[in-house]
């Protein structure tokens, strides 16, 4: 049942609390191997394969073997992963192999959308963050190396690193609703921690159920925008 004196505004506040909590508590260090399904590349030189992008070795690297401007790395993410940070680990031994301009695309394999383009600082020779703070799961992330330094022909990367968490992986318990944590959420401050916990469990369950059917509900074209208004 709905808690006594509860309101829709408190649901919104609780949802915001849960989202903020997930960002603080669930971001881990390097989640590359845990959350990455596979890696594809546009080309590779002998003994410099895509496997070196995730082997965590400082002495190995992936090197492309193709025409300039046609180099890319495609990351196939496990279902439910939300990427908070994506880094390129540069190989600084030869400047002409270092990316200068990089574009990141994301989405489903046949509908990738441009997320951002990055001009890498000429003084960067180690790790460069090229993507941050994604809010939804992207099945595919594609890194396109548009240009190398010094008009370089091929590119070398020592590796990739990902910081991420699972989409609905909130570890709920009543202790997380203690008063010091609620200072930024005034609508929740006067509510018993057990009440907030039970409501949070219900919201999490609702989100899981909605996520499982959402792709059947969202209209695919502007012609059905009326259906979307009804859904809202």
From TrEMBL:
Natural source organism: Nyctibius bracteatus (Rufous potoo)
InterPro entries for the chain: APC_su10/DOC_dom, Galactose-bd-like_sf, HECTD3
Origin: domain of life: Eukaryota
Coiled coil regions, renumbered to chain: none
Record has tRNA processing as a keyword: no
Molecular functions (GO terms): ligase activity; ubiquitin-protein transferase activity
PANTHER family, A to Z: E3 UBIQUITIN-PROTEIN LIGASE HECTD3 (PTHR46654:SF1)
SMART domains to which the protein is assigned, alphabetical: APC10
Protein keywords: Ligase
UniProt key word S-adenosyl-L-methionine: no
Domain DOC positions: 9-189
Protein name: HECD3 ligase
Gene designation: Hectd3_2
